[in-house]
Each structure stands twice: as C-alpha cells, then as structure tokens.
Amino acid sequence: xxxxxxxxASSLAAWLAKxxxxxxxxxxxxxxxxxxxxxxxPQAVQVADRWHLWHNLSEAAERCVAAHRGCLRVLTPxxxxxxxxxxxFEDSLGSPWPTGHRFADRTRAKHSTVHELLAAGLSRxxxxxxxxxxSRTVKFFADAAAPEDLFHGQWQGRPSKIDAFKPYLDDRWNxxxxxxxxxxxxxxxxGYKGSYQRVRAYFREKRLSPGPVTxxxxxxxIVAGWILRRPETxxxxxxxxxxxxxxxxxxxxxxxxxxxxxxxxxxERQGERLPQWLDAVRRDDLPSLRTLAAGIDxxxxxxxxxLTLAWSSGxxxxxxxxxxxxxxxMFGRAGFALLRKRVLLxx
Length: 347
Fold this sequence. Notes:
By secondary structure, the chain is an all-alpha fold. The chain has 17 helices and two strands. The protein has helices at about 10-15, 30-40, 50-65, 100-120, 125-130, 135-140, 165-175, 180-185, 195-210, 220-230, 235-250, 250-270, 275-280, 285-300, 300-305, 315-330, 335-345, and strands at about 25, 45-50. The chain has a two-stranded parallel sheet with strand order 1-2. Strand 1, helix 2 and strand 2 form a beta-alpha-beta unit.
C-alpha cells in the first residue's frame, strides 16, 4: 500500500515503473489515471471499477429524468374541481389601496389629521411643528382633497424585474419545484437581473394563497431511484407508478431499458455486450446518456475488462472516506509525509 502526493499522471507512472510485477490496474475513468497506468505499467491490464461505472450511470440517469420532469405530472392526480379564483376586495372608497393596507391606512390618518388642523385655523407652519413634518410634506397632504389623490407613483402600477419571468416561475411551481433558490439559479442565466428575495416573496405569496392542496409529482431523484433499483425490489405502488411514467414518456421508457440492460451486464459480467449497448444508446434522444456512452467508448477496453473480470476497487471507496477523516483531523497543518504515515499505519 502507498499514498501518492497528487493525482498527476507522472506521479502514478513513476510509482508503477518501480514495480514491474504489477499485472492489474483497477481505476476509475479519470484520464490522468489511464495515462499514468499506460505509461508506468504497459504490461498490466487496466480495469475500470464497476462502482464508478454504476455511479456515473446513476448521475446520467438522474439528469435524463430531470430533463423530462414535465412527464412526471402524469403521476399527479387532477383536481376534482377547478380552483376558484379568490374574490377581489372592492374598497368602499373606490381606492386602489384597500382598508387594512398599512401604507393606505397611515396615509389616510395623516391626511385626516392635517385637514382637521387646517379647519381648526392652524397655519401650515404650525401644523408642521405639531406633527413634525416638513413644509413640503404638509403641503403635499393639504393640497390633496382626498387621501385617494395621494395613492400614485412608485406604489401603483410599477413594473417589476420579475414580471417577465412569472410564466416560467408559474410553470416550475406547477411542476412541483417550490424551492425559490433553485428557481432563482435557473432564471439568472436566462437574463433575470433582480434579487433572490423577489423570487422568494413571489413563491411565498403562491404558498400562502388560498386553494386546495394538490399532490406534487415525485422528484427526478425518486424516479431515477425506481429506474436504477432492481425491479423485484420495487413495491407494488412504485412499480405501477414507474409503469405509468414509461407509458407516458418514450424517452424515460428507453432510459429504463438501457439502465437495466447495463445493470445486467455489470452483475452477470457480460462485458462482450458493451458495443451493442453503446449503439443502442446512440439511437435514442437521451443527451446525458449519450455523453456517458461517449466517455465509456473512449475507455472501451478498460470498461469491458471491468464488466468481465472479477477485479474491482469498489471496496476502496470506504477507505477513501476514512482517509479524508484523517486529513481533516490535522486541520491542514500537517504535511504530506505525516498524512502518508497516518494512512499507512491506520491500514
């Protein structure tokens, strides 16, 4: 056992060159590991680790499901009755600001006080001293015949930066995404220049609005979990819901077939079927899975060996977490030499 100081191909090649008896190099598909193994141990068989292969497939599958999240609405029951629109409050004074609105009530109170003092014979200067108002503010209230004349300007009909994005926000809300931060990160690349607080306030208004609570469609992670698990481990409800998704969405049906075919290759060591699997993936419109297939094709020999031979470094993943724990215990103050000794002695 050993611990190398970095992830450079040259470091791995130098380490392997000193050990000519190495026959098998089990690795993930990072390019520097492949280059280092080829340069340092050309006689060894390179084996792509099965744990990493399945992990990469899981991530690609979740991205595919997320790209077709609209198809998951089939799992959300339609409301029995249309949602009634909330009744709009008609103010008896004909004001655009209803009674109970903080700004409107404060403005009406100040307007009434100013006009009462004017009727009592006080001058505008005296009213300003009494109410601690500037002369301009007193004039503003005194010249208005009714408080409704004051309800204009920045509080009425002002366009907001979020207005152009409200259809997108409504669509994401209906898809079941109610996390304001997630949606804010999605609309910023689309040109939104406003703050996150505006998005949060808009979602809070929707969350608090009256109306029947409807079931949300399952998240892409949950549906990807149904696809990635063995069919016999699914419950009856999960099996039926996945079947509904597959019937409704041709792409997710194809994704399920590809994932299960790859799982069979992996568990039954049928690496010779990999070329046919890659060809089948390229024929379907699944960009994330195609990207994975392109990467696997570039490392085809190692992947076929990983799906055929008994060698695997999946067990090492547990030790990786332990090594990270030892590194964090030293709070970044110890050098590589001490870390290497701790890792090797703890092993």
